[in-house]
Specification:
This protein is mainly α. It is 74% helix and 0% strand.
């Protein structure tokens, strides 16, 4: 039984990593910022898997996504900036898995408001730490693009919020619809 669960988990990691990259490509068609960044629909499969299997699975998907994105024309100013914008920004999404137990309990207890609250909180944590990573990278490595007279931190916060706030909203809506309506897929052992 343990080997079967491990095989299912590995197959889901492969499928969700692929789905995340497709969503990343598609979201880039709608909003792609001039110095990097786009709607982060990539978070949906990572958050889903982090809630389903835990933080470690989300971390693995984040590492895979970062590696695959680095092979597809990345915007890298320095190795540290590349590490922040690709590796760290991808793996912090897995922190959403911290709320897995609370979401599962709210679904089992059929408490809709709590379900939405915890799912939104999970997406917020992922979005916040992803934004924080991009913000730090922007302050340190991209401040030279700030308009004359604008502090680098203000420019970085506004620039990165331009796509991360809509990403948070869209991902929250999608996951608040998806997880409660497909709870048996997210938590298969639930009776």
């Amino acid at each position: 039984m343990q080997q079967s669960n491990q095989l299912v988990r590995l197959m889901e990691i492969a499928i969700m990593t692929s789905l995340a990259l497709v969503l990343d490509y598609l979201s880039g068609l709608f909003l792609r910022m001039p110095n990097g960044g786009s709607l982060a629909l990539i978070m949906i499969p990572v958050i889903l898997m982090s809630i389903r299997w835990g933080i470690s699975t989300g971390f693995i998907i984040g590492v895979l996504i970062a590696g695959l994105q680095l092979m597809n024309s990345p915007i890298i100013a320095t190795p540290v900036q590349g590490f922040l914008d690709y590796f760290v920004a991808s793996v912090v999404i897995s922190l959403s898995g911290l709320f897995s137990g609370l979401i599962k309990k709210a679904i089992q207890d059929q408490k809709r408001k709590q379900q939405f609250f915890y799912i939104t909180l999970a997406v917020f944590i992922a979005s916040f730490f992803r934004l924080l990573t991009f913000f730090i990278s922007g302050v340190v490595f991209f401040s030279q693009y700030a308009p004359k007279g604008t502090p680098g931190w203000v420019y970085s916060l506004i620039y990165n919020s331009t796509y991360m706030v809509p990403s948070f909203i869209i991902c929250s809506i999608v996951l608040c619809i998806l997880i409660p309506s497909a709870s048996r897929l997210v938590f298969p052992r639930q009776k």
